[in-house]
Amino acid sequence: MKKLILVIAAMFILAGCAMNTETNKTPVNAGGEMRVHFIDVGQGDSIFIESPNGQTMLIDGGVKGAGPEIVAYLKELGVQKLDAVVATHPDADHIGGLIAVLNSIEIEEFYDSGKVHTSQTFEEMLTLIDTKNISYNIPKTGDTLAFDEEVSVKVLSADETASDNNDASIVLKVTYGDVSFLLTGDAGEALEKEMLQKDVKSTVLKAGHHGSNTSSSQSFIQAVHPEVTVLSYGEDNKYGHPHKEVVDRLQEIDSKIYATAEAGTVIVSTDGVNYDVSAKEWSNSIENMPSINEGVEIISKDLENEIVAIQNNTAQAVDLKDWQLVSIEGNQAFNFPNVTLQPGKIIYITSGATAREGLNYLKWTGRQIWLNDGDGAQLLNEKGEIVSELD
């Protein structure tokens, strides 16, 4: 609890600066069977685990509006208490729904990334944990979470000092007998590369970052080599998830794909030897999915100083006239003037009170554009096609 108080204090300082419905009704503690529910929360993540001995764990809770639905889902399963709750990182589409859970269901242990965030949702979550006197823990890479003696819950990555929320994601490998689940939060390619030094091979993969191409790199997918992959995203979401590159990589290794946007909640049941997926396999055609050109890309987004960096990684100059940089949450667009970006060069789009222009800087506006709660950026070419994206 002392650690929680320190986190709350640090936060205030920063702030100043298609599943079967009958399956739903099966009671907790199936007797020798573990069930992992990838709950359909729209554009977000929420995973509920029932262990062979009736222990329960909830990992993330989607956006705030999904909270009541998660509570109703758990109560329909007969859940009276959660033995463990894990908030992988403080983005609103992962912790928002946990507010309703904290207010409605008894929680024994709460595991948090420790990454301090200034959002009201994060503040409310920590305050509830403190008020309800819930045991609060910040796991480290290599830790094993106490859960069920028959189930191993290993922390493959956790970094409260990460500069980015996604990089702070708690990544868990849950193993029951011969069947394992790799739950990646929003871990990006850099974290994936670090985890390649560990045993990441798993039966089931929850693809990182809702199927974004900022995660699920070729080398990582090859190393995990999942028989089953779950994509948790919202239908017709504004980020274009899942990205074609990710789907291509999964289909190349013959991984069966299940998507919450299409199938609803996906349940994987296992006795530690065999497993069964209670959902319809993903049927979307990759031919109809947009492909993101990686030639010119958004390489960084500084929320505090309101600077977005765009680099030309091609071998030739690119005319950016009529291209757009879009703030997804704010639904605002910067229209590029008649400017050419030379090979290997970077151009900076600035906004806010300290916006600058001249040389390789272009001023968008003196107003704040980028929200501090994960506002995504998209780069569109003159045809309106998504060329690059950074959440």
Report on the structure:
- With 391 residues, the protein is of the alpha/beta class.
- The protein has two domains: 2-288, Metallo-beta-lactamase, Chain A (4-Layer Sandwich); 296-390, Lamin Tail domain (Immunoglobulin-like, Sandwich).
- The chain has helices spanning 2-16, 21-24, 67-76, 92-95, 98-104, 120-131, 189-195, 218-224, 244-252, 260-263, and strands spanning 34-38, 47-50, 56-59, 81-87, 106-112, 135-137, 152-157, 171-176, 179-183, 204-206, 228-231, 256-259, 266-270, 275-278, 296-302, 307-312, 318-319, 324-327, 332-335, 340-341, 346-351, 361-365, 377-380, 386-390.
- The strands form five sheets. Strands 6-5-4-3-2-1-13-14 form an eight-stranded mixed sheet, with helices on one face. It has a six-stranded mixed sheet with strand order 7-8-9-10-11-12. The chain has a four-stranded mixed sheet with strand order 15-16-21-22, with no helix packed on it.
- Helix 1 (2-16) runs antiparallel to helix 6 (120-131), helix 3 (67-76) packs across helix 5 (98-104) and helix 5 packs parallel to helix 6.
- It is globular.
- The two termini are 32 Å apart.
- Mean pLDDT is 87; it is low at 12-30.
Question: How would you describe this structure in keywords?
Answer:
single chain, 391 residues, alpha/beta, Metallo-beta-lactamase, Chain A, Immunoglobulin-like, 2 domains, 8-stranded mixed beta sheet, 6-stranded mixed beta sheet, 10 helices, 20% helix, globular
